[in-house]
Amino acid sequence: MNGEQLLIQFTNENFEKKIYQIAENIYFFVGYGNSNATAIIGNSSITLIDALDCDEYALNLKKELQKITDKPVRTIIYTHRCPDHIGGAGVFSDTVHEVIAFDKARDDLKYYEKLEDILNMRKIFARGYGLSDEDAITHGLGPREGFIKVGINQVPLEATTIYSGNWVEREIDGIKYKLISMPGETKDSISVLLPEYNVLAVGDNYYNVFPNMYSVRGSSYRDVANWIDILDQILSLDAEILLPGHTWPLIGKEMVRENVKDCRDALEFVLFKTLDCMNDGYTMNETAERVVLPERFYKKKNLGEYFSLVQWAVKAIYTGYLGWFDGQAANLIPVPQEEYRTTLLELIGENKLRQKIKECLFDENYQMAMQLNQILKDSRLEKIALEGRATQVANANARHYYLARAKEL
């Protein structure tokens, strides 16, 4: 199967709507939105952990809850405040009394908001917002975000209670909760432990694909060593059931431990191998070529590269630790890029280069065609290469980016 077929298979096998009854009064909703939601039924009300990504998806969730109980949603706990986890909260505004979140454990870079335009553009490309359902296939972690359809909106609710510190214990409508700060993928991430049931909701600090160490939308360094520590913290809680913010639940202590430890050990392998290559003097791209998951990790279902890629994590680690300079003297003060490109084109010859790109396209070596075309800059050839490359990758973000760029051309 090619990458496109693998992505379709992964989507069809894992993102159908399903309600898991975790305990007599705990329900876990998968496939009802881009993210998951957990409903805990207390003495007189429901507490939601996360609220899906848009109003239409949350309305469907509300209908399912009404089939289970006539108790209203009074409390919402955000595992973090990314739009795909809070965008449906407003659907419950008529009954909700409290919305709980944690403050960011670390501040964003100052003036980060000045990058809003480029971040939004790259997010549109990476998430495939301008693509049809057939072309996009999936978000990579779940069904496509609902708000991209006309008439569907994100309706988040502002948090009314914002905690800081390491952890908080609460009793909400007869149920005990321990909210634990775990700033991993996001700086405000928490896990929610239900100690009476030994159930742990972890948001996006764990899901059943290779973790997103770098977002192609653009992101500052996500400390991989810190993420490993967080996975160790999750393991130390010894949960019977683990509920991720995306993908399916892990049920049973053995399954929880095996899958979370695989993820933790894979990240540690990538981090240490990357640092070793860096210390040996390899450039960023050379390092990315050399760091490959061993077979014991590569074949694990919960480490598939459908949303992120190992090589993206490697490059993030490289720049996170050493910055942009790759150690090559020629790159200290290079000639202008356009001058370099023009010189190469004169040296190779436009006709010769064009013919080589066409040969690459014929041989379905689309990646080489794309890279060579950075010198030639022929938009027609680039479009063919982008569309072809999209069929070869099983990574949703990469596929979306290729197709979005091709569509733009």
List keywords for this structure.
42% helix, alpha/beta, single chain, globular, 2 domains, 409 residues, 6-stranded mixed sheet, 7-stranded mixed sheet, Metallo-beta-lactamase, Chain A
Q: Tell me the number of strands.
A: 13
Mean pLDDT value: 97
Largest sheet: 7 strands, mixed
Q: Spell out the CATH superfamily of the largest domain.
A: Metallo-beta-lactamase domain
Shape: globular
Question: What pattern of helices and strands is seen along the backbone?
Answer: HEEEEHEHEHHEEEEEHEEHHHHHHHHH
Radius of gyration: 23 Å
Beta-strand portion reads 15-25%
Chain-wise SSE layout:
Layout (H helix, E strand, L loop, with lengths): L2 H12 L3 E6 L2 E5 L6 E5 L4 E4 L5 H14 L4 E5 L5 H4 L11 E5 L13 H12 L5 H4 L24 E3 L3 E6 L2 E7 L8 E5 L4 E5 L20 H13 L4 E4 L5 E2 L1 H27 L4 H7 L4 H4 L11 H13 L14 H12 L1 H13 L3 H11 L2 H14 L3 H13 L1
Parallel strand pairs: 4-5, 5-6, 6-7, 11-12
Antiparallel strand pairs: 1-2, 2-3, 3-4, 8-9, 9-10, 10-11, 12-13
